[in-house]
Write a structure and sequence with these properties.
The chain is α/β, with parallel strands linked by helices. Helices cover 22% and strands 23% of the residues. It has helices at 4-19, 108-116, 137-150, 163-167, 189-192, 237-245; strands at 40-44, 49-50, 59-70, 74-78, 83-84, 91-98, 125-129, 157-161, 179-182, 211-215, 228-232. The strands form two sheets. Strands 1, 3, 4, 6, 7, 8, 9, 10 and 11 form a nine-stranded mixed β-sheet that branches. A two-stranded parallel sheet has the order 2-5. Helix 3 (137-150) links the parallel strand 7 (125-129) and strand 8. The radius of gyration is 21 Å and the shape is globular. The relative contact order is 0.13.
Length: 255
């Protein structure tokens, strides 16, 4: 028989659990989920593309499915260009967010709804591409927490990240995401030509350590061996796919 003291203790614990706000839940994803996906991923942006020659065993695709525009309200720009890829290819759904100014917190549920609509096509993962300003970080954090709660529990959540977020600005460290992909291309000229060992250029954030985003026309400023490599085509995959098929591509680094 349970004592009255133990019964009261269990009751208090139950009340405490029920009183927890959803935002207080630990939404930290389990480590290593992205490793189940191919180590090389091609970003498929708003161009018609034919990727039917890809090898699904080695290469995934991350397709821009829609752009969500946040202003006085929430608007959606759907993908308009078609793309082809082989059966069995791992596909990551990408949603781009554009917001020219501070975002009203009341827009978050509607933004999350539009993003989650992309999951009806059953992608292997969801990736959010948003260059959030400092004034937009609270909104972005709340949005990512909302997405993580409402997504399938086993589906990875990825974000793209400015290089500064991964080096000298640690604000992303507590986001409920599986990875943050440092975007190491099309950066300002002085950083593009700077030695990669400068203190302000080093990747320090753990979320940014396992992957890297590069382009087909710029050498990677960091070693890519052992990382998940996302590749952006500067001139479209019709022109740039031969570069990626070159065996040495993923190992290129600045002199």
């Amino acid at each position: 028989m349970l004592s009255a003291r133990k019964i009261l203790g269990f009751a208090a614990l139950a009340v405490g659990c029920c009183a927890l706000r959803p935002d207080a839940a630990d939404l930290t994803p389990p480590a290593g989920r992205m490793k189940a996906l191919p180590a090389r991923t091609l970003w498929v942006w708003e161009r018609p593309e034919d990727l039917s020659t890809l090898d699904p065993r080695t290469t995934a695709i991350a397709t821009l499915d829609r752009t969500v525009v946040l202003g006085r309200g929430v608007a959606i720009i759907p993908r308009r260009q078609s793309y082809l890829y082989p059966a069995g290819t791992t596909r990551i759904a990408v949603v781009r967010i554009e917001a020219p100014r501070a975002i009203d917190a009341a827009l978050e549920p509607a933004a999350a709804d539009l993003i989650l609509e992309t999951l009806t096509q059953a992608p292997a993962a969801l990736q959010i591409d948003f260059d959030a300003r400092r004034s937009q970080r609270d909104f972005y954090t709340a949005l990512l927490r909302d997405l993580r709660r409402r997504m399938p529990a086993a589906m990875p959540l990825s974000i793209t990240a400015l290089a500064s977020w991964c080096s000298n600005d640690d604000w992303i460290s507590r986001l409920p995401v599986d990875e943050a992909v440092p975007m190491l291309f099309r950066m300002e000229p002085d950083r593009r030509s700077a030695p990669p060992d400068l203190p302000w250029f080093r990747i320090r954030e753990p979320l940014c350590q396992s992957s890297v985003g590069i382009s087909t026309r710029e050498p990677s400023p960091v070693p890519t061996a052992g990382k998940r490599v996302y590749i952006f085509p500067d001139r479209g995959w019709h022109n740039d796919l031969p570069l990626v098929d070159h065996a040495a591509f993923a190992q290129r680094t600045l002199p």
